[in-house]
Structures
1.
Amino acid sequence: MSPFPKSTVLGYPRIGPRRELKRALESYWDGRSSRAELDRVGAGIRGETWRSLAELGLEGLPSNTFSLYDQVLDTAVLLGAVPERYRAAEDPYFAMARGTEGLAPLRMTKWFDTNYHYIVPEIGPDTVFKLDAGKPLGEVREARALGYETRPVIVGPVTFLLLAGALERLDEVLGCYEELLGALAAEGVAWVQLDEPALVADPTPEELAAVRTAYERLGAARGRPGLFVASYFGDLGEALPVLAATPVEAIGVDLVRGGVPVVDLTGKTVVAGVVSGRDVWRTSAERALAALGSVRASRVTVSTSCSLLHVPYDVAAEPELDPALRSRLAFAEQKVAEVVTLAAAEFHGPAPAGPSVALAGPVVAEGRSPYAVRAAAQAEHLRLPPLPITTIGSFPQTGELRAARAAVTAGTLTQEEYERRVEAEMEHAIRVQERLGLDVLVHGEPERNDMVQYFAEHLDGFAVTRNGWVQSYGSRCTRPPILHGDVGRPEPITVRWATYAQSLTDKPVKGMLTGPVTIVAWSFVRDDLPLREVVFQVADAVREEVRDLEAVGVSIIQVDEPALRELLPLAPLAAQEEYLEWAVAAYRRATSGAGDRTQIHTHLCYSDAGQILTAIDGLDADVTTIESARSGARILGAVESFGRGLGPGVYDIHSPRVPGAEEVEELLRRTVRALPVERVWVNPDCGLKTRTYEQVEAALANVVTATRRLRAEL
Ligand code: GLN
Ligand code: ZN
């Protein structure tokens, strides 16, 4: 077996340096171009990636890290796990990813604690696993034709089944992986990478047994390529000795999130992830070399801590950034160069101690009276009907507005003209809401490109990029701001718009802010301060904004925290508890300056919040709106202990479908059975940004009809 290369990366961005794949996908989906054209763009991106990695001097080139939509979905296809109902679709792959006429897509959820979303494989009694190795084999051949030998990257059997909730099917799936190893060996592939990130989340004894079974069996396969099992996003913990006892030749460890393994790995190659794939900062060579020098193994390869999928392509595409900041940054290309440089150096240990940083003092618990007192004051002040109807914040964002924003940046539209259009859009949203009969209105967020970037652009300590796109799912990308310095709010951000929107109507219009945890979770964050310190700085800026909104008479202020769960450490429990404690404290720091009469709302986008419902209650918001309709109102089984106002969504906004009034009524009836009626709010699952006005108006009209039927019975 040839030795593992001295330098590698676990994966690379694939959307294209100029989001070429996004454009090609959307054009194909809209029927504007052919599948052949899409495949041509894909091949171009793959070829360009291999060329650039090789040119940077990287030895071990990965393949099959490209995907037209998602690598977990690719693995499902590889294993034949395509549910029957999609097989007849014109394009079964995209039917699973996005749905088609009359066929809902497969579920999608977050990839561990990243902002990347994968398609959840559906495995049931009817699933018959059957290998279809066309994609990985095709990429190996394609690279070879360009002159590159590559290492196919595939989601490992244990992680795949854990994500699908079907670990009991291990035996069958291993049959496919064995066959795959045979096919790759026949193709002349020297190494294969099996990704097992699920192992870093405190594996149960059953999961450890699965690791043992899987890698004993795959290790015993005859004439196979070298086996490289990659872990990332944390420590392998107990899974490491288990894996080390199997015949796999190489083990990947995340030395950024996790520690240097204490297990002696003599006989193995350790693929040491010392260059972070999760941030945008340059690597400290001193620390990386020390970590590399501390690994006890027969061979150490320098790598990234995880796939570079989670960072943008190239700092060179950001000429407008402040040079001082630019010199601190490393995107994918720069990180590859770091890996190559580190691999060329001599390693020596041990790791120096990190700089010690003082934590901020305890948060002063202050401000608001207990919920019951506030609720009474707000009822008196706001005089809302029972079952108040509201929305989550955004109204449909039109292409014209996005174009107008781009025109301001390009200098072809004046700021005044842009603001006039934004005001017109707000007025339109307000009139629609009045006409429909909603009780608490929103301004619709037309002035915001994105709920985090908008605030980042108005706060000190943040930089925004021009091309720093990171794939979120499918063709969707975000451009996370870079939080690089101390955060401050030089002047009010939303007050001007909130005042304007309120001037249009007698109904209350909610002030709309993004919470400190979410702002930080969806940014790349400085690494020279503990995360909680950074979050507290943002909380203080939000707090100032809350105060200013209140001062101009805004009586309801929503502070969204859809990312509250995202920063939750994968393991262990103590770390999760510690996180929730400071995350909740940060939220309260942001909102507790409001008086009792001011109603604080918050919003969370997901439904399996059951596990952190106590923490959500701890946010102490007067009203929490939360996704529910999309997931069949499962949340209602867990809300009994929730002590404040709650709006479990009655309209699934993720689909263009308009729910009927009866359907909404049924959901509302279930809600008032689960919660005291005086605490129930009526709202959609999430913001309406991605829908059309036509859909939104029809759906909200039905929401109002259903609510009125219930009110009539009170
Ligand atoms: N207020 C935001 C909106 O409606 C909330 C978005 C979100 O929940 N992610 O768009
Ligand atoms: Zn939401």
2.
Amino acid sequence: MIIAHRGAKGMAPENTLTAFRLGLTQGCEGIELDIHLTADEEIVVCHDMTLDRTTNGKGLIVEKSLSEIKTFDAGHWFDEEFKGETVPTLDEVFDLVPDNIMINVEVKYAYEGRIERKLVEFLRRRNRLSNVIVSSFDHKCVRRIKQMESEAKIGLLYQTALLDPTAYARSFDVEVYSLHPYFQMLDSEDVLKATESGLYVYPYTANEVKDLLKLTDFGVTGIITDFPGKLKALLQDR
Ligand code: G3P
Ligand code: CA
């Protein structure tokens, strides 16, 4: 599965509607995005906790209302041609992305559990639990989400070379759906053991041809990439 990281992040401003649209045009089968909570408890799509790097605004997202966040430009920093983009709400992204495209929602920060409750309510309201994976580096957070909603699919993000990722995932008292390792820390044995145990494996974030080919040979379920079009072309050539 080709998964567009923050949209087609390599060619458009990350986590914007234009980046997601471009990922879809390039043939992605999944979209990865990051979420945060605003002061008025709306879920918005942005990687950082602050607006500083990817918009012309400043400060913590959680200290601003959605209407204030919407006044900032989220495209110009990447290139003049993307001027006018705004930080999207999760609703806006779900309106854009067809139901057959998997959405991987990464929870960046739990906001004392508030974002988890909001997200579960959101996924129920949108009737989208079956084709969404909720992942996080905060494994207690995704565990709470699964405890709240048994239909939720949860994924474990990790950056280190775990001794036995499958045993770790299977040690949870709830069902873990997928592993999301940093691609450099993954080996073929990990992938085989995980997939044989029924876990899906989505490494992040591979962009070089040699890495994309290596991960494909490992038999991963999907690859999270900034260049979905490149991965699509590679897979077509094989
Ligand atoms: O979900 C995979 C990947 O996006 C995790 O790292 O920093 O790009 O959010 P980051
Ligand atoms: Ca992410």
